[in-house]
Amino acid sequence: MRYRLLGRTGLRVSELFFGAMSFYERGGPDALREYRAMLDAYADAGGNVIDTASAYGESEEVVGELLAGRRDRFVVATKYTLSRDRTDPNAAGNHRKNLVLSLEDSLRRLRTDYIDLYWVHIWDRHTPVEETMRALDDAVRAGKILYVGMSDAPAWLVSRADTLAEWRGWTRFAGVQVPYSLLSRDVERELLPMAEALGMSVAVWGALAGGVLSGKFTGPGGTPEEGARRAGATRVDPGSLTSRDHAVAHAVQEVARELGATAAQVAIAWTRTRQAAVHPIVGARDLAQLVENLGAADVVLPGEAVRRLEAAAEFELGFPGDFIAEYEAHTQALGEAASGERDGRRAAAR
To answer: Which residues form the NADP-dependent oxidoreductase domain (predicted)?
Structure first.
């Protein structure tokens, strides 16, 4: 597996991240053996980033146990924001109190003195972003976290927070975490361009759209599995799949057959075709599924295959992306010089 730098830092991270959300319940000895085998397979493939969260049940505790004796070889990423106690109004949110207490809980559960990458789990509309960024920077200066990132937030907020940190000498975001798949391409409108412009890595969840793109519901004999979810949020009802869902899933399967890969591998590989800084988070229910998903690192999609996949997705950028592109297409809008620069960028990209 290849490595890239995390955002504007010097930290080397593998091209695929491991999502430990599936370690939600500790289970008995058999479950722990399966979890260990999965983590070992990921490490043997060259992976070094483990992504979890304080809200993922017992995941942090399981990860802490599995990393005993080898913790420093991994980049451990976890998140805070979601409620620790639903009866306490201050046990959730991005404010300083919840950050401090959540961080201490995560350090204890993960059996470590520091978190490599600490994500803000989701935008909290009630907490000033200045408070969040200063509190994160204080934790960095205290040595309890090394790098920070933002998950599931609008581009304007992330860019504003990052700029505030730059101006005030605080720790800037190294990355963002977003949902991204052939069936969910909204981040192409603002978040991906923002991340590229600001030099942030992009951790991607939901690349298989809850199993829809793996062929679980559209392949021969495909039947829904207990607990299957769409985009990591809601259960997939096979009867609710649209013609667009089926068209994209079948396009993925067709490309997979041509390349000698699996549909899951093609779907994961596609998320990396837009930007080199995109890192899919691969999770799995068992070892066999994880090994299959890790194979996406070796799948290279030809340009023609990418075009076919995207043609099936029926996606439009909308305003202002399409509007600006249309303006750029006319030399009289921005002048001949601008047209030449645009053509030069396209040639360089090819």
So the answer is: 16-313
